[in-house]
Amino acid sequence: MKILLVVAVALIDADDRVLIAQRPEGKALAGLWEFPGGKIDAGERPEEALIRELREELGIAVKEACLAPLTFASYAYPDFHLLMPLYVCRRWEGFVQSREGQALKWVRARDLRQYPMPPADEPLIPPLVELLG
Question: What are 42-55's pLDDT values in tens digits?
Answer without folding.
Answer: 999 999 999 999 99
